[in-house]
From TrEMBL:
GO terms for cellular component: cytoplasm. Belongs to the PRAME family. LRRC14 subfamily. InterPro entries: LRR_dom_sf, LRRC14/PRAME. Coiled coil: none annotated. SUPFAM superfamilies: RNI-like. This is Leucine-rich repeat-containing protein 14B. Keywords: Leucine-rich repeat, Repeat. It comes from Manacus vitellinus (golden-collared manakin).
Length: 519
């Protein structure tokens, strides 16, 4: 459905669509029209106009999320468009704002906020080329270093050295861009553009490099910390991190797989876990916690009870939780505040059905996202699941891939899901009857694609027809066989793959060496 545009916005589009005329006329444009022209230029992907608008920006702040978000003149949110042409023009315009000695406007810009840009799977921009979080980190670092070099070599206007602009950004650092980002952060004091890291994600980094760069980011400003793939952070390293660095504003923490493993705990490890829980308790803003693929059996209370602020998001998928863990979650003060919950990889119907439904009941008034992948939910459990989900009237997203449900059970469940008014996204499993008889769950990667694709397509059509007949075209239903879309992984998958091959090769070499010594 086309979004309505005001006459002002239509006029702005007409103005920027003639690139040469628009660029020549900017000096005569009123300050308060710059945001309107910026959004119109972004929609039409007028890169050179975007560059000149930013280079001559007359206002105190430049907030991408607000500029591209829904406005009175044009309701459509463009912050989901990570268009390479637009973003590169934007960042180079920012560099040239600093260098431009002939701007018709007095330089007032103090804060640039790039954190409102959202990376999504489907892009609607014409060029179809995206600039993801990693590439934005790379380009901003490169431009900052270029500025430092230029200011050291050239005869600049003395006023240039007085410019100081905080650039708020979500940094994404891997081995490949590490050196560049470190150099940019080290030279921050010499650069008019001050990189202010609000969120930090690291993949494919050695621990030594991770610890070094995290200190450079100014952790006192950090609101989100994601340590994800191929950073070998274990519990003792996490304790060192929390003991040596203070994160007063941290709201969201993601830890890598296997950070915790209670199966090999000693008395010292138990004390370490207690210390980590206490340190997290000091993070009074912490409301989002992701600890997937760790073994936390019986220790959830020890980790979460020191928290003084209720969690809004909790991901404990594949963490081998037992009944005591689920009972703690169901009865804790977190339960009434959980907006997003991921319990994938736990046999909920077998281990703790009533406790899980108690947790669901307590969070039902606020729950927006529920993920129950590979939870052994079968046809016989569907009526109970419907009963548990009925109060969850604010649910936006429900993911339950990997459960052994028949096509008939899925149709029954979809008929109910149509009644959830806020629902927008459903990820459902390939029906059990599309796989060969005797398939065992959870299905391994080798067998996951060996199903009757024609039958699946037929069932998927029936499920979409159920949505259509209930006037729920707004609900997107899909079956991502290998997990949901991850923009960061998508952007750096070549590096991730190379790192995995290297790790495998090193392991093989160690094994061969050990074997030869034994021989």
């Amino acid at each position: 459905r086309a979004t309505m545009k005001s006459l002002r916005f239509l006029s702005a589009e007409a103005f920027v669509s003639n690139e040469e005329f628009a660029r020549k006329s900017l000096s005569a444009v009123a300050h308060n029209l710059f945001p309107l022209l910026f959004k119109a230029s972004y929609l039409l992907e007028q890169g050179e106009v975007i560059h000149d608008l930013v280079e001559n920006w007359p206002l105190v702040d430049f907030n991408m999320g607000k500029l591209l978000g829904a406005t009175v003149d044009y309701q459509e949110d463009l912050s989901y468009r990570t268009c390479s042409v637009c973003l590169e023009s934007c960042l180079t315009g920012l560099r040239d704002y600093v260098l431009n000695n002939f701007s018709p406007y007095r330089k007032r810009l103090k804060v640039v906020d790039l954190t409102g840009i959202k990376d999504v799977e489907v892009q609607f921009c014409e060029c179809k080329k995206t600039m993801g979080r990693w590439a934005r980190t790379q380009l901003l670092s490169k431009l900052c270093l270029e500025l430092v070099v230029y200011l050291q070599q050239a005869q600049c206007n003395p006023g240039t050295f007085e410019i100081s602009i905080d650039v708020l950004i979500d940094l994404f650092v891997t081995e490949r861009n590490y050196e560049l980002v470190v150099e940019a952060l080290l030279k921050k004091c010499c650069c008019p553009l001050k990189i202010c890291c609000v969120a930090f994600r690291s993949d494919n980094l050695t621990l030594q490099k991770f610890f070094y760069i995290i200190k450079l980011t100014d952790p006192s400003l950090l609101r989100k910390l994601e340590i994800v793939h191929n950073v070998r952070l274990e519990m003792e390293h996490l304790e060192i991190l929390f003991n040596s660095i203070h994160f007063p504003l941290l709201m969201s923490l993601t830890l890598p797989a296997r950070t915790f493993n209670v199966q090999r705990f000693t008395a010292t490890d138990e004390q370490m876990l207690t210390n980590i829980g206490e340190k997290m308790g000091e993070m009074t803003h912490l409301t989002e916690l992701c600890m997937s693929f760790s073994i936390l059996t019986g220790r959830i209370q020890k980790l979460l009870s020191p928290l003084k602020t209720p969690l809004k998001m909790l991901d404990v998928s594949n963490c081998s939780l037992n009944h005591a863990d689920m009972a703690y979650l169901a009865n804790s003060f977190h339960a009434n505040h959980l907006e997003a919950l991921d319990l994938s990889g736990h046999d909920i119907p077998e281990l703790y059905p009533s406790t899980f439904f108690k947790l669901l009941s307590h969070s039902s008034s606020v729950l927006r996202s529920l993920t129950l992948e590979d939870c052994n939910i079968q046809d016989t459990h569907v009526n109970m699941l419907i009963l548990g989900l009925s109060p969850c009237q604010k649910l936006h997203e429900f993911k339950f891939v990997g459960n052994p449900l028949s096509s008939q059970a899925l149709k029954h469940l979809f008929t109910f899901l149509c009644e959830l008014p806020m629902l927008k996204n459903v990820e459902f499993p390939v029906p059990r009857d599309c796989y060969p008889i005797g398939i065992t769950y959870p299905i391994d990667d080798a067998s996951i694609c060996r199903f009757d694709h024609q039958k699946y397509e037929s069932v998927a059509e029936d499920l979409n027809l159920i949505l259509l007949q209930a006037n729920r075209e707004d609900v997107k239903a899909s079956t991502p066989l290998f997990g949901s879309y991850d923009a960061a992984v998508q952007e750096t998958n070549n590096e991730l793959g190379a790192y995995l091959i290297k790790s495998f090769k090193e392991t093989l070499e160690k094994f061969t060496t050990s074997f030869n010594k034994m021989s």
